[in-house]
Structures
1.
Amino acid sequence: MQNPSLFLIEPDQKIRSMIVKHLNQGGYEVAVADNYRRASGRITLDHCLIVLSEAIPGESCIETVRAIRRDHPHASIYVLTDGTTRLSTIELISDQIAKYQSKPLNMQLLAENIALVLHEPEMGGASRPPVEIRGVPALPAPAIPKIGRAPAPEVIGDAPMIRRVRELAAEVADTDMTVLIRGESGVGKGVVARMIHHDSQRYRDNNLVTINCPAIPESLMESELFGHESGAFTGASNTKPGRIEMAHGGTAFLDEIAEIPTTMQVKLLEVIERKELYHLGGKHPIRVDARFLAATNANLEQLMAAGQFRPDLFYRINEFTINLPPLRDHMEDLPLLVDYFLHLYSRKLGVEKPAFSNDVLAAMMHYNWPGNVRELEMIVHRFVLNGSAESVLASINHDGGQAAQPRDSRHSLLHKKEVQMVLSILLQSHWNQRQAAKVLGISYSALRRRIEKYGLKKHSTYNVNTNDDGDSLELRISARL
């Protein structure tokens, strides 16, 4: 079996030689360059890991990481820092890299960490952040290929709605149906996509290609999605496969699909339906056997009404829908999530598992969590790093400079806005609840829970005032908040 292939980007020739020698002894094949400009055209699909030095003259580590993630989404990224990198800098790219390690380098530790990057299964949660592993025993790290199927990622929680998400993911996994995963930012849509792919027949060497649609400039969208031929545009010196093509035989996950321009939506629809694409500048179709998953935090029904999302693409990707609830709707799972992240980061950082006081947990239970599980994960991660309960309280007691509203407050601004929106759509649809649920972008059962929660009744009297343009609604209601 072929040894794992890595690409090392390091400006210091002595350090390059030392790393290559040590990794070759561990069974790795290593290509090298002294900066990303020289490396970019030589990185191929065979390179499963890119080891990047932070200290490259004339190149920003943050911008280079983002460029690698854009140009080579199939590869993991391991950053070698100069020992002075601030945590805040790492956090800016925490969702784009696998791990980091400070110089001067411990070569045995480097080999151990690389083995972890290549063979460690992804954990549940919004992302897998980078960690510097300390105290790993100095053991040889031979390149051992993956065998079998790694443990599946999982949406954490015992609330009925979370159990239902897991049931739906398991139900659709072993089919080739296109799945639309809906929910607010930070609820774990990417985790659900990985769950579905992991349990499908397409799982092989974790060949799930995630396409972060908002991160791709509109001018590069066609080339990034579908690939290009040499000479297709200025600077296109080589033929390059698109990200959908990279998912051949596996799964393509279109994250935040609503961000794809309407001009590209037609071409994407053709690829999904016909299973073939054309490179930019190409004349011959390329067959692509990929399963498509999509996610969005947008109200696609409203975007369709506004002409910003094609109905034919919507119905094609909406063969099967999974709605992920915001954290504020299953707060009974917060203690379980907190414990999960405390365990995860204490293990990864090699520290004793800390604990929150009852007062801090109570404050967390009364916070609305606009960033959902991703925000919770970030706060717990920082707590494990610095042990400061004060920083946790500061994070959840300020929202844009204003104190967060208690979750169970009867006059919560968030709940007022939500009940206004729900009621306005119900009134516009003449209390057709299934139609209202579609417009709101939630399930029928989720709408029923909100109607019961807010005490909304069909035959009650509500005063509805519109503004001068007749567009937005202001509702004065006597519903239970």
2.
Amino acid sequence: MAQTPGKTIAGVILAGACMFISGYLLYLAQRHIAMGTAYAVWTGIGAAGTFILGIFLYGDSANAMRIFSVLLIISGVILLKLAH
């Protein structure tokens, strides 16, 4: 199914805005916590969020192993923040 040019442009603008906001929030986080911790949290949240959106928006598989794996990522992010 082909998208109309208007939807494609809107998607690119939305993605660009989200990337800018995400980068800015990473910059703000690095002012208060170690860069390695901030980046790990940033990528972990991104990975988990993409996984969840993939399930709900695109019908990606949600088997037990995939869910457990994302829970491990989230647990690692929490432990990194607590160890700070």
3.
Amino acid sequence: MRCVIARFPFDLFKSEVEQAMKGVKPEPVTGESVIIGRRHYPVKQVGEVITRQDRRDFSAQEVTRALSGLGFTCRAMPAPVAPEPAEQAWPTTVV
């Protein structure tokens, strides 16, 4: 599949991406992620490996679009969990 990442065209194939990521230890996922094999990788890490560019040169959205087009399962950044409301510290005495 032909795609553009950081203004450069790439011809990517699912098997080539899987081969490139073989043996690469996944970094901790803090944002968007992709499942390759049985591992969850940060999208930016995969983009850096397959394009050989610095991850600051492209967006996660560019790589997510390309990987989704190849058939990989991509996950968005998890929504922040809202803290549960604290119990009131008021005394509950009955008069």
4.
Amino acid sequence: MEDYYETIKELISALLAVHGYKSYSHECLISFMREFYPDALTESQLHFLDDLRRLRSDILYRGRDVAEDYLHRNSSEIERILELLFEKAR
């Protein structure tokens, strides 16, 4: 789950760099997508990314465990988001 999040974060950071920006805030990455690529991801996908961001933070900083089936339940949404971001990064 963390690797998926890091890949998504890096793809959005690459898009940010194309526009001449750099962000150290993960929240800003989602806001950037909403502002500069409003048609790339649905509002539902952006909310999912924000939930993923919070989950990743809880894992890293609070030692939160993730349900064993989390990836199974969410892998298709994560892969779809990655696909859409790869399209924008080309």
